[in-house]
């Protein structure tokens, strides 16, 4: 076991850390996370548009079209916001003008993903003559195109800056004016490049990427049990190595997660039942049903620690309970520690795999609904599961059942670790008494 741990430290951890800190991967992760406040706010509007109380629904019925606007302009155009966030983050890492790069990337994305539709005649009570953009073209389905256009646009801008192919203004010109002229040549090249690709050659980048990557999305963040278990295993495995699991997995899987919950929310808004949404394995599925107290379902371990005979474990458990209740578990992961701990690392990985499988079968048999909304991660799991599944009481009860299952899995491993800790504390106490007697 010690040899395996040493191998992981020497061979695997440097590779994982290097991947997680790679410039473009980091930019993707930061850019997508930056959209989270918008999607959460939009999700609240979706949730409160669908409270299953007849009197309430009848009251808001005349205002449904107005109440629908916030979610359409948050989750509904997710890829547009992500483009700016990713480009801005990558530009910052290169010490470039992040505002200019973000704007140029948005321009490139719109040229690529959202060609305007021209309407020549008024359509009574629906639309007037003019040019229109279909919001669906800049929503979650275009997220892969957003990532590519953002990264490519910044790299083109950086190339021109590095090669000094820019229009320079005299000294004394305000920086914001100077930056605008610096961006003229790279901006023109970015515009022409994406315009030619999409509208002259006729290559649909978004369609191509969706076709290419959709099978992976359907595996990791769709309805595949294997993909769901693989995701859970890798996140927990990296945490046991001492590496932030979601940070490593984020650049790969977060675009799929964001697409999946956006697809579910849109389907729900359009009248689909929460038992018949497109995707089971959303981030919220893991967040509320599996990560009870954080990755590894550590709230169960925290509760066991609170009643431990070990002074250290009892103190740490009590200190970790409140953060764990709100799904923050770094204190217990690094304080116990679970990191590089072969005893507690086993249930940390195994328990979520078991509850994921159990929850999956309850979902496909329509006992439990799918997730229809994205809520803040710091809401206690039973409440968030209840709200995210259109106020489903069975979903809230499942959280409690999964917690009990995890508690039972952690218990024997915890007792082994507790005995080790008690022996260690006894040795330290005996050494302290010996030192006092010698003094």
Structure description:
The two termini are 40 Å apart. The radius of gyration is 26 Å and the shape is globular. The model has no long low-confidence stretch (mean pLDDT 86). The longest helix is centred in the last third of the chain and has 46 residues. It is an all-alpha fold and 439 residues long. Strands 1-2 form a two-stranded antiparallel ribbon. Helix 2 packs across helix 7. It has 21 helices and 2 strands.
Task: Compose a concise summary of this entry.
The chain has 439 residues and is mainly alpha-helical.
Helices and strands, with pairings:
Elements: H1 2-20, H2 23-33, H3 36-48, H4 54-60, H5 64-67, H6 69-72, H7 78-93, H8 98-113, E1 117-119, E2 130-132, H9 143-162, H10 175-182, H11 184-200, H12 205-220, H13 225-240, H14 245-269, H15 283-290, H16 299-306, H17 311-325, H18 330-335, H19 342-364, H20 381-388, H21 393-438
Antiparallel strand pairs: 1-2
Summary keywords:
mainly alpha; 70% helix; 439 residues; 21 helices; single chain
Give Rg in angstroms.
26 Å
Spatial ordering of strands, largest sheet: 1-2
Low-pLDDT stretches: none
Count of helix runs: 21
Fraction of residues in helix: 55-70%
Q: Which structural class is indicated by helix and strand composition?
A: mainly alpha
Q: Identify the overall geometry.
A: globular
Distance between the termini: 40 Å
Average residue pLDDT: 86
Strand content: under 5%
Taken in chain order, the helices and strands follow as HHHHHHHHEEHHHHHHHHHHHHH
The total strand number stands at: 2
Q: From the structure provided, what is the oligomeric state, counting identical versus distinct chains? A: single chain
